[in-house]
Amino acid sequence: MQNVMDGLEDALSPHPALRGAGELRPVDLFEEVRSTELVDVVDDAVVAAIAREVSRATHELAERPPEPEDTDTRAPVDLEVVIPAYNESGRLPATLAAMVAFLSEQPWTSRVVVVDNGSVDDTAAGVLNVTGRACNVATGWCVEAVAIGCSQAGKGAAVIRGLRTSRSRVVGFTDADLSTPLETFLPVMAALEDGASAAIASRHAPGASIAGKQPLGRRLGGSAFRMLSRPLVPGIHDTQCGFKFFDREAVQSALWKCRSTGFAFDIELLRHVRDDGGRIAEIPVTWTDTAGSTLRPVRDGLAAFGAVAKLHRELNRGTGPALPVRRASARPTTTAPGSAQ
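^ thats the sequence. predicted structure below, dont judge the formating
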């Protein structure tokens, strides 16, 4: 920058009409020089003056002490669990109490982060009402529950907000209804320790089951949805179970690529993880269809199919949805060590 300024000043000095221009302010130069033949020279003088101001400001910024670290940044732990929540004040306190108690007995340090997705009830207050902590007597580590906000609508937006702001080794998300057993954390952590980039619960992998019979409409709709989704993430039996955890470093690129915030979010995230070379471990679970679901089968079902069709178009460069086919060479699903078969 200094070389540029010196060059500009040298270009000004030889001109006889700019008597002492180097000492004049830009406004004085405009008063002193009005001849049209000197317009280019005046412009050079103004540029030089601006360059000097930019240099001075840059120097001041370089000398300024760094801003204090963001006080909202959470300290890293071994496992950070994100729960996206919209109007979950009814069941969230019990979920948090059970999860915090379970995690406090594990050998890893943990935190539960509730992302309030624009709730109009007492969702955030429900987090504060949980005494907040449970402590492991053996290790002395206390598991805390905290709440952060997300103004953008959609489960995907809330999950992305929670995962991007984490600095923990393992990050992931689960639903507020505890449909997936808390014991699933054990094979999930084992799979990630074994080198998987993602470990996800599955209701449809070999060895999995669903406790209680779902209505026929939901079963048929779910089967059709899985058929449409399967070509996007081959080898994965269940992309929609709300219990997914990741090696944080491995999932960062995938998170920044995601554009979906609704029903297609889970599929797009897994697809990007797979495209980045990550291995996905699918953990079979016994899943419970918990009462109180806000899912509207017809309206939400149509929205879900539309979201996946759009994702097909985007990921397949406008070629439209690929028809599901059986391939002998399809990538097999990886089952975590110690998981039930």
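The longest strand covers residues 142-149.
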